[in-house]
Amino acid sequence: MQEQGTISIHTENIFPVIKKFLYSDNEIFLRELVSNAVDASQKIKRLSSLGQFAGEVGDLIVDVKFDEAAKTITISDNGIGMTAEEIKKYINQIAFSGATEFMEKFKEANDANEIIGRFGLGFYSAFMVADKVEIQSLSYQEDAAPARWICDGSTSYEISEGTRTTRGTDVILHINDDSVEFLNQHRLQEILDKYAKFLPIPIHFGTKSTSEPDGEDEEGKPKYKSVDVANIINNTNPAWTKAPSELKDEDYLAFYRELYPYSMDEPLFWIHLNVDYPFNLTGILYFPKIKNELEVQRNKIKLYSRQVFITDEVKDIVPEFLMLLHGVIDSPDIPLNVSRSFLQADSNVKKINNYITKKVADKLQEIFKSDRKGFEEKWNDIGLFIKYGMLSDDKFAEKANEFCLVKNTDNESFTIKEYYEKVRDIQVDKDGNIVYLYTSDVAQQDGFISTAKSKGYEVLVLDGPLDTHFAAYLEQKGGEKVQLKRVDSDVIDKLIQKDEKVELTLSEEESKKVADVFEKSIGRADMKVEVDALHADELPVSVTIDEFMRRMKDMAKTGGGMGFYGTLPDNYKVTVNGNHPLVKRIVESEAEEGEKLAKQAFDLALLSRGLLTGADLTSFVKRSVEMI
């Protein structure tokens, strides 16, 4: 039997298209050919289970070999095999009328599944790296004859009687000069580790060295020897393919270490995804420890389709904030482009996105309700992630409002609703606004915190990279008439203004004199001096920055679309307590002495805020020694 013919693609331009357009990364050829071999293996298993194959299935395995001298790579399986007629049907007929039509089909999202589903197209990825491809196959069918097919990358092929004596298929690639990098043990191992790590049929690639017991030495200690064993690439039954009821915590942790062998930390907890309607989706998502900084380690979630690795670019399937998670998602229903490298816009993608968001929110709520203490202990590791989700996804925020925590300076935790109830009757100003005081730096703002607490007020700790934006979220959705003010953005009586009015003991003339003395002693255009009526036991001088301006500048630093404010200089307000005894001394002092006292009081205020540095700090220390 010998036959020559022309591959039914009706154009001689299809191979350049495959090489340059269809597959963006030529290493994908090995994924496609190994996946085809796995499919062939699963088909014989399926036929046997249906009673349509009475022979011995045997131990199914896919074998990958290379011969550097002969410049060949061979992918072999003992699966269903093909007859000559089936080779002609599945290999020769690529159902496109021309390269132009092919490229048009590629652009249509609805056609993507149909395109990638064609056996022949995946097979032809071999011509990305080979200038000649040979198939040797023997079908499972009784009395089938072995068949051989060979093609040099043109539209011509030759089919003849083959030499294979056992069921299955060999695909032999004669590697071209541009692709000799793949005739390398390490390179092929790398590709197989990437794409075939969890395929459902064992993938064999040469041997590897391991150690085994070899008796004892003279001191009675065990000896080991190095032996070569079969190198099986994959775990054929990874954790995500099992039912959650089959797995224990140690199984999930072991799988995490399998996915991320170099990770130093164990995950906090995980979610096992398992849904078969209205789409098929399985997977495990792990919550890693997230430091209190925006170290968004993307590309940690791997997308598989029937256990074949596709990509770690999952931004369309997984909401932006969930990109902080690690793990695996496997779905045959996710539409891909022809090379399987990129996702296509599709209603299923949106449904999967929404499903994953809901599952994550439900899991967090479940943990919060069942073990609030444990949830609070994990908050420092998961708080950033939850706030990120609330700021970027309204549906997630609706659920997260029930388990999102805020902490005060005493390290007590509250839900958003609990905190609202706690302060609503105490921290209310004369206009009925409920004022949440907060600190972004407990140590640096300690003086302001102490003053607030002395009045019975609570102070929240909002010191994370997203907390400027989260403060705005709390104002919008944290409760009726809520305002957030940083504890150092003004004197406490101005932050929460009550009806009570404190009278200024200075005359108008004395107030002007105090303002003039401070302005002269400070001598800085960015410091606006105000003399105010405060309680006598309040600080003599406070240096603050307006809440609105500071918040806009902070948002500009974190990319909040406030870039204009980021370019503006800092402007501070210097509040002089006109009722403090020190201010009365300044009024009564000679000009030089008054300016010295004013400068000292101002520097103390700067020092309490960490704003006194360099030569100004040196002068302050020297002046302080002189005044003792």
UniProtKB/TrEMBL annotation:
GO terms for molecular function: ATP binding; ATP hydrolysis activity; ATP-dependent protein folding chaperone; unfolded protein binding. The keyword Nucleotide-binding applies. Residues 25-179 form the Histidine kinase/HSP90-like ATPase domain. Belongs to the heat shock protein 90 family. The gene is htpG. Keywords: ATP-binding, Chaperone, Cytoplasm, Nucleotide-binding, Stress response. SUPFAM superfamilies: ATPase domain of HSP90 chaperone/DNA topoisomerase II/histidine kinase (SSF55874), Ribosomal protein S5 domain 2-like (SSF54211). ATP binds at E32, N36, D77, M82, S97, G98, T169, R340. It comes from Sphingobacterium olei. Gene3D superfamilies: 3.30.230.80, 3.40.50.11260, Heat shock protein 90, C-terminal domain (1.20.120.790), Histidine kinase-like ATPase, C-terminal domain (3.30.565.10). InterPro entries: HATPase_C_sf (IPR036890), HATPase_dom (IPR003594), HSP90_C (IPR037196), Hsp90_fam (IPR001404), Hsp90_N (IPR020575), Ribosomal_Su5_D2-typ_SF (IPR020568). It comes from the Bacteria. This is Chaperone protein HtpG.
